[in-house]
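User: Could you go from structure to sequence for me? I need the amino acid at each position, not a summary. Structure tokens:
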């Protein structure tokens, strides 16, 4: 492993397990100290981070609580240092037909999938601006280019992630901060809740006809977190096996 992120500090939201856990472990393997913000206990993720020879820290926080996210900055900074790389991965998902969708469902989807990103960017980008360098990576979804019944609120939230990415990229570029998003396909994780039938159907729509796993995403995350992507900002990067190729 190149350890090209040595001396950097990364923060992964929703990093206790699944895709976020894979991001945290790979960033650590590349030399970064890694903090995890999650509503769940992330002690296993911290153990994986430390097994890579990097410092790890976990902080339990409700990412839908703006004030709590803002307050978490001090705990993270004290534990591992000022954040250079922010990976906004935390997300919720759940099909609900539009006719049955409540305003509570809608608001919770946006609170976790979009507003948590706004909160972390507000909390951690000022330090990046002061230091003249930063990488912000938001996880979107290729669902924005598909027609999926029951996911209107989810698709709308992930489209908003792309809009937030573009807007923030424009405002932060002069400070040496890049902002990009990554759009995966259906990803199989140990904690996944998608119907099993989808893992048979979705790969057949992709150019690469196999189920996506978290390890398929980590290389793009590391690229966007490094100086190799210094001239890349405001972009959404599809990492979906070529599903959205047309």
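Assistant: Here is the amino acid at each position, in order:
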């Amino acid at each position: 492993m190149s350890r090209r992120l040595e001396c950097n500090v990364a923060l992964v939201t929703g990093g206790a397990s699944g895709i976020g856990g894979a991001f945290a472990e790979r960033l650590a393997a590349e030399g970064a100290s890694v903090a995890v913000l999650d509503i769940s206990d992330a002690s296993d993720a911290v153990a994986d981070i430390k097994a890579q020879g990097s410092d790890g820290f976990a902080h339990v926080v409700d990412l839908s609580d703006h004030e709590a996210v803002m307050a978490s900055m001090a705990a993270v900074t004290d534990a591992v240092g000022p954040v250079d790389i922010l990976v906004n991965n935390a997300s919720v998902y759940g099909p609900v037909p539009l006719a049955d969708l409540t305003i509570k469902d809608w608001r919770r989807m946006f609170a976790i999938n979009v507003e948590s990103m706004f909160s972390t960017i507000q909390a951690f980008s000022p330090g990046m601006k002061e230091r003249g360098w930063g990488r912000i990576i938001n996880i979107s979804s290729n669902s924005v280019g598909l027609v999926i019944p029951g996911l209107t609120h989810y698709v709308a939230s992930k489209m908003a992630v792309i809009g937030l990415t573009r807007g923030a990229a424009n405002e932060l570029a002069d400070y040496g901060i890049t902002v990009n998003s990554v759009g995966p396909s259906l990803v199989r994780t140990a904690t996944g809740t998608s119907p099993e039938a989808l893992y048979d159907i979705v790969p057949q729509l992709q150019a690469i006809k196999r189920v996506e796993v978290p390890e398929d995403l980590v290389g793009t995350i590391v690229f966007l977190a490094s100086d190799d992507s210094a001239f890349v900002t405001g972009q959404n990067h599809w990492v979906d096996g070529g599903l959205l190729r047309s």
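One structural detail worth keeping in mind: The two ends are 35 Å apart (CA to CA).
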